[in-house]
């Protein structure tokens, strides 16, 4: 059975930006693409465990603020070294101005 958790309001994130969302012991990032779509993935870089919420969103990726590794926010795929381990992505839905992720 799906477990949908409210992460934020749609207005909390600008276009082509992201925000951190913590639930229990897990950290996520919620991304709003320049096309106004929302995505969610693990919020910690797989390379050196840095919070990705301090990173940049650009051209369909999130860049880690520490060593500039990048991850595709649609798939979680590690796109640029030094990261070589993909991140998990999570289903997202938007209802009544709120963003929900399934965990």
Automatic annotation (TrEMBL):
Superkingdom as given in the UniProt entry: Bacteria
MF (Gene Ontology): 2 iron, 2 sulfur cluster binding; dioxygenase activity; metal ion binding
Keywords: 2Fe-2S, Dioxygenase, Iron, Iron-sulfur, Metal-binding, Oxidoreductase
Keyword Ribonucleoprotein attributed: no
Bilayer-spanning residue ranges: none
Listed InterPro entries: MocE_2FeS, Rieske_2Fe-2S, Rieske_2Fe-2S_sf
PROSITE patterns assigned to the protein according to its UniProt record, in alphabetical order: RIESKE
Protein name per its UniProtKB record: 3-phenylpropionate/trans-cinnamate dioxygenase ferredoxin subunit
């Amino acid at each position: 059975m799906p477990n949908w958790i409210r992460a934020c309001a749609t207005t909390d994130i600008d276009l082509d930006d992201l925000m951190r969302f913590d639930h229990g012991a897990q950290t996520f990032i919620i991304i709003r693409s320049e096309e106004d779509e929302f995505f969610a993935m693990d919020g910690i870089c797989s390379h050196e465990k840095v919070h990705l919420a301090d990173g940049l969103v650009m051209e369909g990726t999130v860049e880690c603020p520490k060593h500039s590794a990048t991850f595709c926010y649609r798939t979680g795929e590690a796109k640029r070294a030094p990261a070589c381990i993909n991140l998990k992505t999570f289903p997202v839905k938007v209802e009544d101005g709120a963003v929900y992720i399934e965990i």
